Amino acid sequence: MKFAATSALLAFAVSFSACAMPPDPPMVGGPCSYETKVIGATVTGVGDPEIDLVDEDGVTFYQRAEAFREPVEVGQYYLFEKRYIVEGTCTPYNFLLIGPPPKAAVLESGE
Predict the structure, then answer these.
(1) What's the burial of 52, exposed, middle or buried (CB within 10 Å: 0-12/13-18/19+)?
(2) pTM over 0.85
């Protein structure tokens, strides 16, 4: 009898505590939307494992060194696809390395 009463009390306590648990918190930020554009960025620092860059808008960002095929030096210019947020509260920017600029762009800039 003592075992049955203890089991019933335990079952009641477990079911009651499950009801008393708060619901999962709502998702913060909701869905996010991005737009993309191709931008240029200049290497401002070379480290391991990250390369420091600054884009045309003055935004500083970092890329992993292994994303680059050749050795990287300060002052080099690369093209990136910049994804920037237009809706929601996700990461404001994402950068994808496209590669060095076309040769015509290098000649026009005087480099």
Answers:
(1) middle
(2) no
